[in-house]
Amino acid sequence: MPEITFITLAGEAVKAHVPLGMTLMRGAIEAGIDDIRAECGGVASCGTCKIIVDDADQGRLPPASILEGSMLEDE
């Protein structure tokens, strides 16, 4: 199970084990991070819960899905 380090808006590092297949948003919520903006409630319909992935870790993630990519096009 991958260990993820989330950095909160306050700059606190929170480490959590996130099962394969679980979204990072769900993993963050289950780790007690409550400062994630998600206007749709986390159902992947608005794109407000974006995360920033460290450049060194970009290659460790699968490519964005079509839905994810369409929400990132405005960036």
Automatic annotation (TrEMBL):
Annotated GO MF terms: iron-sulfur cluster binding
One Pfam entry name: Fer2
Domain 2Fe-2S ferredoxin-type, chain residue ranges per copy: 2-75
Identification of the protein by name: 2Fe-2S ferredoxin
Source organism per UniProt: Sphingobium fontiphilum
